[in-house]
Amino acid sequence: MKEISLSGGRYQNCLREIRSRASDVEDEKKGIKIAKKDWENLHLHIASYNNFPTAAGLASSAAGFACLVYSLAKLMNVKEDNSQLSAIARQGSGSACRSLYGGFVKWIMGKDDNGSDSIAVQLVDEKHWDELVILIAVVSSRQKETSSTSGMRETVETSPLVLHRAKEVVPKRVVEMEEAIKSRNFPAFARLTCSDSNQFHAVCLDTSPPIFYMNDTSHRIISCVEKWNRSEGTPQVAYTFDAGPNAVLIARNRKVAALLLQRLLFHFPPQSDADLNSYIVGDKSVLMDAGIQDLKDVEALPPPPEIKDNVPTQKFKGDVSYFICTRPGRGPVLLTEESQALLNPETGLPK
Question: In what residue span(s) does the Mvd1 C-terminal domain sit (predicted)?
Fold first, then answer.
C-alpha cells in the first residue's frame, strides 16, 4: 500500500466537477450535516484496492476512476445520473465512462467542443447475455512501458492507418457490434471483437516509434484460439487485447469455457511448484467443469484435437502468471456493510 497525492490533473478534474454538483448532506443518525458550500473546503482521504493488475492493460484506471467518481457522487449527494457522471469519469480515464454501467456499454463520441455530450450509454445489462464466460490470461502484471494515454497521443500524431480506422472502419463496426450484442449473435460478435483487437495493435505498430503491447505469449494465445475456432467451423471464443499483453477471452457458454481452460492449461501449464488455487482465480466452478482438481489433472491433459499429429506440441510452462475466470458484470455499487470499507471510520486511515 502506498499513499499518492491527488494533485494530478486527471484527479483534480474529477474532484472539481463533482464538487461543483454537490448538494447538502444530512445524516441525523451519524450527526452529520454538510452544506453544499462546505464541500469546497473539506479534504478527502481515498482508499482504493484492485484485485487485478494495475497499469497492465486490463482497464484498471477505467475501473478506478469509475469507482472514484461514483463514490464521490454518492458521498456529496450529486443528483446526476450515471450517463451524466460518465462525462466526468471520462476526464480521469477515457474508458472509465463505460465502466459506470454493467453489461455492454457504448461510448458516444459527441460533437460539443467542451466534450459535455461525450458520454456512455448502456446497450444491454449484464443479464442480457449471461451465458458468456470470460477468461483472462494475465501474461504480465508488470506496468507497461507506454501508457494508454501517451500511446494514443503518439498514434494520432504519427499513424496514417489510424485516420483510416477512425473514419472508415470503426463507425461501421460499432453499428455491427451493437446488432450482434442485441441479437446475441456470437459468430458476428467474435469476428468483430478479434478483428478490432488485431487492427488496434496494427495501428500501434504503425505508430512512430512503434508501440509493442503484445508479446510472444499473446501471439501464441491468439494462435490457440484461431486454430480451435477454424476446426469447429464457427467461433467458440473471441479474444481481445487492450494496451498490454494480457488476453481477454470470451467463451460463448460454460461448456466452451471449460474446453478453453483445458486448452490453455495444456499449452500454458503452471510451474511445477505452483498452487492451482492461485493459478486459477475468480470463478473456480469453470475449473470443476473442466474436470481439473489438481496439478496431476493438468499434466494428464491430452493435446487438443485441432493440433496436427505430425506437429510436436510445445508447452510454455510459466509463461502465463495466472488466469482469472469471470463473466460480464455490473457497474459500481454502494456497499452498505461498513466492515467492507477500506478506511477506518474512527481515524479515516486505511485499515
Answer: 134-334
